């Protein structure tokens, strides 16, 4: 009788063991399904300052390689223009500004909070490659005979230019004021002006201009903040993108494009 009971117990134990083993694949399958369900996906709208285009295009490429189910649509323009669009109700997930003043236009009404500074930048003088006006310093920009192009005062590069010129005691009457830094650079590339003030990172993107680092440039620094909007249509992807930009991979990309550390 003892032998029979022992055998029955052994059979029961074996059955339980087999039952446990057969349940493992199901548990694994459930975990895999959950992981898949939690993966980032959908559309992601990123509004970023024009000066970020090169770096962000590269960052988006790497981000989407890690999250292939996310389709990122960037919108590059002057930070003031982007802030106005957001205030007007544009559906945006992430906003990256070239200064804190335009970011504040978005955070003050509660459309976003706690932006993170992720990069810094400074201005340089750009002139056509052959420098026909023989520009060598900020003082030359104040000469009435020289055609100078600046960003509009409401745009971060314009506000920075006015501060730099004021600090150095130079008064400039520009022939045009552009809505983003890319437009200033394009005019110099096309020989439509003798000189302009742009970010050093923009000057680095072309071989069609000559760059001059002006006195006082290191004292006028633009800090770039980034934030996921409060009502972002794709909150999870927005937060992930901000984390990517502020993390090691994003910072490495920004440094390769000439941006300074935050």
Brief sketch in words of this structure:
This protein is α/β, with parallel strands linked by helices and 262 residues long. It has helices spanning 2-38, 53-66, 79-87, 100-107, 138-141, 156-167, 181-189, 200-203, 235-246, 248-256; strands at 42-49, 70-77, 94-96, 116-121, 123-128, 148-151, 176-178, 195-199, 209-212, 222-228.
Question: What would the keywords be for this entry?
Answer:
single chain, 262 residues, alpha/beta, D-Maltodextrin-Binding Protein, domain 2, five-stranded mixed β-sheet, 10 helices, 10 strands, disordered N terminus, molybdenum, metal-binding
What does this entry look like structurally?
With 262 residues, the chain is an alpha/beta fold. It has two domains: 42-120 and 224-256, Periplasmic binding protein-like II (D-Maltodextrin-Binding Protein, domain 2, 3-Layer(aba) Sandwich); 123-219, D-Maltodextrin-Binding Protein, domain 2 (3-Layer(aba) Sandwich), CATH 3.40.190.10. The protein contains ten helices and ten strands. The protein has helices spanning 2-38, 53-66, 79-87, 100-107, 138-141, 156-167, 181-189, 200-203, 235-246, 248-256; strands at residues 42-49, 70-77, 94-96, 116-121, 123-128, 148-151, 176-178, 195-199, 209-212, 222-228. The strands form two sheets. It has a five-stranded mixed sheet with strand order 2-1-3-10-4. Residues 1-26 form the signal peptide. It holds the Pfam family SBP_bac_11. Belongs to the bacterial solute-binding protein ModA family. Keywords: Metal-binding, Molybdenum, Signal.
